Amino acid sequence: MTGVVVDPDNPSRVWAGVEIDGVFRSLDGGDTWTHLETGLYDPDIHAVTIAATQPKRIYASTAREMFVSDDLGDTWQPLSIKEKWPLPYARGIMVKADDPGVLFAGCGETTTGEKGHVLRTTDFGATWEVLPLPTQPNATVWGLATHPANANRIVAFSLFGEVYVTEDAGASWRKIAREFGEIRAAVWVPN
Fold it and tell me: What stretch of H or E contains 154?
């Protein structure tokens, strides 16, 4: 499993992304699951996230595309990131906690890659911008984390242990001094 999201307004609704097997949805808190396939032509799911729009928007990233659903996952449409992103490999995604139209994504050349980027859209994925990191990441930007307590603080990390932090929703970033081995997930927990 590469990601799990719970509907913040209805905890019985859960979506799970499974690498090489697509997106699954539960409407009963995980007791039963439905495989969601209509329009989701790439089952290599790397991340899933939810935007608290009306209706809810579900995003799923795959190796070469990002998909969006406005009907709880019944149908999916591609965002055509190949034409919009500088590197083709999509990985982590997250919605800004206080603005459902703002989505952040990590990308790279391949699974490991030798460089990566953090991208941001402020229009639900129609257009994207590369955000200014202080150094070129040493690998694909694997994931991101934020928290509603401070929606402007975002943590992004490369697969090979570099961590970047912004306090202003991506306008400027700092790289933390400590580097780790592989990082596969992160969570930002306020004090």
Answer: strand 150-158
The amino acid at 73? G
Give tens-digit pLDDT for 99-125: 999 999 999 999 888 899 999 999 999
CA distance 47 to 40: 13
Q: pTM for the full model?
A: 0.93
ω into residue 55 within 30 of 0, thus cis?
A: yes
Please choose, from the candidates 38, 31, 57, 178, the residue with its C-alpha nearest in 3D space to the C-alpha of residue 121.
Answer: 57
Euclidean distance between CA atoms 148 and 140, whole angstroms: 26
Closest CA to 24 of 35, 13, 32, 11: 35
Q: How do residues 42-93 score in pLDDT, each as one tens digit? A: 999 999 999 999 999 999 999 999 999 999 999 999 999 999 999 989 999 9
Residue given tokens 């933390």 in the structure block = 176
In whole angstroms, give the CA distance from residue 116 to residue 167. Answer: 20
Phi, psi of 68 (to 5 degrees): -135, 145
